[in-house]
From TrEMBL:
The keyword Cell membrane applies. Residues 16-33 have a biased composition (Low complexity). It comes from the Bacteria. Part of the signal recognition particle protein translocation system, which is composed of SRP and FtsY. SRP is a ribonucleoprotein composed of Ffh and a 4.5S RNA molecule. This is Signal recognition particle receptor FtsY. Coiled coil: none annotated. The gene is ftsY. The keyword Cell membrane applies. SUPFAM superfamilies: Domain of the SRP/SRP receptor G-proteins (SSF47364), P-loop containing nucleoside triphosphate hydrolases (SSF52540). SMART domains: AAA, SRP54, SRP54_N. It is a peripheral membrane protein. GTP binds at residues 141-148, 222-226, 286-289.
């Protein structure tokens, strides 16, 4: 049952109590829907072509030498690993080359995968929503990063864990955003607290109170997109955070920054700016499927290591999943059946 509450905070007749929320929509039959591992591999194919295409031509050579390492450096930079992570990886490979007496290019590729995994492993820290009721998650990011659609996917993700979820339509700036959230709410059978126009902080404040009254487990609070350079909007989102703390002094319990992977290295500046304004506690990296810049995960790990809670590789409702370092690196280096051009080039 879907409920759309006005500013009064009073549920409309027919709103289902939290404990009678209908089950989430059935997933497509397993046979027709590729697994997450397959979708992750497919989603990372552009980065892999950037990285793997470069690597396979490099690793096609028999012998490891300084020229090969220099070309590898260029390949890593092109995949948006950033100077810091690339330098670190090259240092590590040189060390392993000597220490482990690596000879073949295959061995070097294996060493690269291991070194990359070591870099990104600290980002793996799946979000636990225990310990607070409701557990309040504030979502922030620049325009179009994927905040609202990620909220829809997260709603389903938490529901699948048996949690009740309430969405707060705090993007009061973009007219269509509320409707978008309402649509996601309908799909996931969760209540959306919204109001016509007005103040984001007030909507979210009401949503937290409604969630508390209904004993909802998780509140997902949307906010309008904004650029870090729009100082008045950064001040506004800082106020939203303060108001959440008024509604629940222990909250927000998670401040998620949504980043579009297409922006590559600019992600670092966004993390720093939003962290300064609202204290980011976790990251969501969307649209990895549309970019060759997946190496940005390594850059984030080296330069602003916030927990990477979720990664997104598509528009499907289950195309956003917790980040797992081993899975990510395996997908980056694995050949995809039917798309072996990158691996065999
Ligand atoms: N391919 C792909 N598209 C995505 C992914 N995540 C989000 N999108 C798309 O990105 C577009 C923008 O997403 P929104 O959720 O509207 O972005 P937003 O951050 O809420 O936007 P504003 O409200 O304008 O700030 C939509 O078309 C989404 O379907 C992803 O992982 N892969």
């Amino acid at each position: 049952m879907f409920g759309f509450l006005k500013k009064s905070g009073k549920p409309e007749a027919g709103d289902a109590p939290a404990d009678t929320q209908a089950p989430v929509e059935a997933a497509a039959p397993a046979a027709s829907r590729p697994s997450w591992a397959e979708r992750l591999k497919a989603g990372l194919s552009r980065t892999r072509q950037q990285l793997g295409g470069g690597l396979s031509s490099l690793f096609g050579r028999r012998k490891i030498d300084e020229d090969l390492l220099e070309e590898l450096e260029t390949t890593l930079l092109m995949a948006d690993c950033g100077v810091d992570a690339t330098t670190h990886l090259l240092d590590e490979l040189r060390r392993r080359w000597k220490r482990d007496k690596l000879e073949t290019a295959d061995q070097l590729q294996q060493a690269l995968a291991e070194a990359l995994q070591e870099i990104v492993a600290p980002l793996e820290a799946p979000l636990q929503v225990e310990g607070h009721s409701p557990f309040i998650i504030m979502i922030a990011g620049v325009n179009g990063a994927g905040k609202t659609t990620s909220i829809g996917k997260l709603a389903k993700y938490f529901q699948a864990q048996g949690k009740s979820v309430l969405l707060a339509a705090g993007d009061t700036f973009r007219a269509a955003a509320r409707e978008q959230l309402v649509t996601w709410g309908e799909r996931n059978n969760v209540t959306v607290i919204a109001q016509d126009g007005g103040d984001a902080a007030a909507v979210i404040f009401d949503a937290i109170n409604a969630a508390r009254a209904r004993k909802i487990d998780v509140v997902l609070a949307d906010t309008a997109g904004r650029l870090p350079t729009q100082l008045h909007l950064m001040e506004e989102i800082a106020k939203v955070r303060r108001v959440i703390a008024k509604a629940d002094p222990s909250g927000p319990h998670e401040v998620l920054l949504v980043l579009d992977a297409n922006i590559g290295q600019n992600a670092l500046a966004q993390v720093k700016a939003f962290d300064g304004a609202i204290g980011v506690t976790g990251l969501v990296l969307t649209k990895l499927d549309g970019t060759a810049k997946g190496g940005v995960v390594a850059a984030i790990a080296r330069q602003c290591p916030k927990p990477l809670r979720f990664i997104g590789v598509g528009e499907g409702i289950d195309d956003l999943q917790p980040f797992r370092a081993r899975e990510f690196v395996d997908a980056l280096f694995a050949p995809v059946p039917g798309a072996r051009d990158d691996a065999d080039a």
